[in-house]
Write a structure and sequence with these properties.
- This protein has 13 helices and 16 strands.
- The chain has 489 residues and is of the alpha/beta class.
- The protein has 3 domains: 4-170, Rossmann fold (3-Layer(aba) Sandwich); 202-376, Rossmann fold; 382-460, 2-Layer Sandwich (GMP Synthetase, Chain A, domain 3).
- The strands form 3 sheets. The protein has a 6-stranded mixed β-sheet with strand order 2-3-1-4-5-6, sandwiched between helices. Strands 9-10-8-11-12-13 form a 6-stranded mixed β-sheet, with helices on both faces. The protein has a 4-stranded mixed β-sheet with strand order 7-14-15-16.
- It is 34% helix and 19% strand.
- Associates with the 50S ribosomal subunit.
Length: 489
């Protein structure tokens, strides 16, 4: 998805009808009665060649208290803050109301991009209301009919350049991943790792549940209160990136909205969409999963860490609010045991205790991030890999399913960021997952690659070994060169 579009406006102007048309399904309830939508609803929209995320919101109410209407308004304001583009919808048959003018002022201050749309503009009944919309100062209004599908081409025309702009931004921030390795390289030493520079800083996403202390942690690293913090959960509403020099290490750090399970709108902790946080994980090279020491490793923490591993990012787990923990040693042992048990796919990943409030442990966090980044970029010589593979086969040979003996002929590293290895073998489809895990765990331990995602691919190639005969061929060429008679004799 290239960008997020939030549809906002007064109740009963046709927001849910347009949402259903963009997603191509009747996902949102539609009725003539105002205020049917009370919740945020996300969908995958399709308009021409564009693919994007669309959010249907509750109608903007003027209430600001803790009533249901007040809570619905705050939830809609969240959607405005986290969306890339806001589509502000009016009812062209009613015209511009005082409420529309209030909400237009809010959007001018809070929204990044605003598209003004006059809905129900089919026929002559909506002409006057569409003309009135110019007075809001939000540009030329699009004349739409969400119910009949009119004006969709005009909407596509307006969205297209914005989509290209967001695509360019995404390409600039997108880190280099799955970099191919020259398989002909057979050196005995590892190649030096390319470290971040001012032009290409290390990209770090700080993710976790709401109120874990993500913004406080980044403020402490910055040395100033750049990000809004407070005791309330869910203050941060969208992914914010800051480029800083962290004790000589150039980094672009992403502060993200708290990721948690869907909550009811009536609860005090209003639910947040996690789409921006997920996008930040994809932009990152190192993901810091920040836990609350009081309630570590809840289900959502595990999902966030697993997402980072599946995306192939280096992972560091940081336990915040350590300064208020009483039984530190006992708690640390319990944390490490729970980490190994609940996240075996990240076995050995750094687990660091910090206090975002006091700044204690930030030096250990930086060292852990640098170590994780180095491991994520590591490249192992083919010769060393094949010597290691022989030892692993002698220690524990592969099984022989249905009496078919599996031969693992040779191994090479195909990619870095994260490390990816290819094992050429017979019957690759017969190798059980348990044996692949045995090899991955061995790679982690013997080549000092704790915690980083490791990709292992089994590939069949018959009896062909591209490395077989290479030395004999080189030796033959040398002998031929030495036996060659000099010219003129």
């Amino acid at each position: 998805m290239s960008f997020t579009l939030a549809i906002v406006g007064r109740p009963n102007v046709g927001k849910s009808t347009l949402f259903n048309r963009l997603v191509g399904k009747r996902l949102a309830l539609v009725d003539d009665q105002p205020g049917v939508t009370r919740d945020l609803r996300e969908g995958e929209a399709r308009l021409g060649d564009l693919r994007f995320t669309v959010i249907d919101t509750a109608g903007l109410e003027e209430a600001t208290d803790d009533s249901l209407q007040g809570r619905m308004r705050r939830l809609t304001e969240r959607a405005v803050d986290m969306a890339d583009i806001c589509l502000f919808m009016l009812d062209a048959r009613v015209g511009v109301t005082p409420s529309d003018e209030v909400f237009a002022d809010i959007l001018r201050k809070r929204a990044k991009y605003v598209i003004l749309a006059a809905n129900k503009a089919e026929g002559r009944a909506g002409e006057a209301g569409a003309l009135e919309a110019y007075a809001l100062g939000l540009g030329e209004p699009l004349r739409l009919s969400a119910e009949h599908g009119e004006g969709m081409g005009d909407l596509l025309h307006v969205l297209m350049p914005l989509a290209e702009e967001f695509a360019d931004q995404a390409e600039q921030h997108q880190p280099e991943t799955d970099i191919s390795v020259d398989e002909d390289w057979d050196g005995e030493e590892e190649l030096p790792i390319r470290w971040p520079t001012i032009d290409k800083p290390m990209q770090i996403a700080v993710v976790g549940r709401p109120n874990a202390g993500k913004s406080t942690l980044i403020n402490k690293i910055l040395g100033e209160d750049r990000l809004l913090t407070g005791p309330e959960a869910g203050i941060t509403r969208d992914a914010i990136s800051l480029t800083i020099d962290w004790n000589g290490l150039p980094v672009r750090m992403w502060d993200t909205a708290g990721m948690r399970k869907r909550a009811k709108v009536q609860e005090k902790l209003e639910k947040l969409s996690v789409s921006d946080g997920l996008r930040a994980v994809k932009f990152a090279e190192v993901v810091v999963v920040l836990l609350d020491a009081a309630i570590p490793f809840e289900q959502q923490d595990l999902r966030i860490a697993d997402l980072a591993e599946r995306e192939g990012r280096a992972v560091v787990v940081a336990v915040n609010k350590w300064d208020i923990e009483d039984e530190k040693q006992e708690k640390l042992r319990a944390l490490k045991e729970a980490f190994e048990r609940l996240l075996p796919q990240l076995r050995g990943a750094p687990l660091v205790t910090v206090s975002a409030k006091t700044g204690k442990g930030l030096d250990r966090l930086q060292a852990a991030i640098e170590r994780a980044y180095e491991t994520w970029n590591r490249r192992i010589p083919t010769a060393a890999l094949n010597r290691w593979l022989v030892g692993m086969l002698e220690q524990h040979p592969p099984p022989a399913p249905q009496g078919k003996r599996i031969k693992l002929r040779y191994m090479t590293q195909a990619k870095t960021r994260p490390p990816g290895f290819v094992v050429m073998c017979s019957h690759p489809d017969k190798i059980p997952d348990s044996y692949s895990r045995y090899l991955v765990n061995g790679l982690r331990q013997d080549f000092d690659m704790p915690g980083t995602p490791i990709r292992l691919y089994m590939r069949g190639q018959g009896n062909k070994n591209p490395y077989k005969g290479r030395r004999e061929k080189n030796a033959g060429a040398l002998t031929k060169h030495l036996n060659k008679k000099p010219k003129g004799r």
